[in-house]
Amino acid sequence: MNNLERVLGYPFYYTGVLADKILHWNNPGSLFFFFPHFHTGGAEQVHLDILRIFADQKPFIIITMNSRNKAHYQAMQDTGRLIEIYKYLNNANRFIVKNFFYGFLASMINRHPKAVVLSANSTIFYELCYYLKESYIIDILHGLFGINNEHWIQATPKINKRIVVSQAVYNAVKNIYINNGFADKYVERLKVIHNAVPLCNFNITKDWNAPLKIVFIARNSKEKRFHLYQQIAVKVIYELPGTKFYCIGNYAKTEPVVNLGEICDRQKLYQTIKSFHILILCSSSEGFGLVISEGMTCGLVPLATDVGGVRETFQDGISGFLIKAENEEDIIEEFITDIKKLDANRELLKLMSNSARDYVQEHINYERFAVEYTKVIEEGKNR
Q: Please, which residues bridge with residue 316 across strands?
């Protein structure tokens, strides 16, 4: 937001301040979370995981954008107080309503001593943080896509702690800092916290001699490159008849892949995929690749493109295979080569499956995740 927009917005901003003075909502835990959505998605699941850590403090949860579905709505509501500002925003009134909420939210947060504010993927938050006075401000960068980079870069001096979900994202952000002339103190505020998944706590049963069962799990978006998975399926089925290809997500035409639809509940997802052998991820960009860990805890061997933080989710050649090709034709062929290798060597497939489960249990567990996020929040409260 430029200075002119800020000046023009002041009447609506101060109307929001007045509304806060009248309503005077109290947040005993002084925790405020800004998340864009409550729909299905890896980032949204991480946000819910974070909220559950602090549910006993009943944080305020500000939802800033419209959601595709209500997959995590009730679960988020159970962890705190939802404030759904997206309901009031539209193209016609956006300037007025946005500035009203800047005033309302800034006034409310500034009333709370030692307030801690955490956000992820929210442009409104980056504009709001200029109005916050004594708050400890934290943001999470899942990756450098999906949000306007200009907003989070400009807000860097206001951010007390910036969490990134992989070393790959850390390196990318550090380079951006260097290119934009930020001091070393801002690099010191970066912290890597890997995402986590609940472990699969029921017996995993797979038929190691049966035709391979392969799955692709992702929302229907361009960077997931579902079309590559379809081409892989066509070619593998031709060479290895009987191989079964499935997908889980909001897809329409998927032939020859069998579409199992969207599955929002993790335990239902685990029950669905526990007999599968291989998980494929074809993405052109990923912050961390949470679905890989979800598959691994059910003993699926991941075959995944070497993008973003994917290489931090498993051990290449031990618990899965990284696809290092860059152009699409070569990517498809490399996937097919690895599938055929595992089909021909079922002992290797079983060994890698066991290694995948062990890796998740040791490195991608909730205990570590909760400890690290709790430490960041406590640093803010005890400043």
A: 320
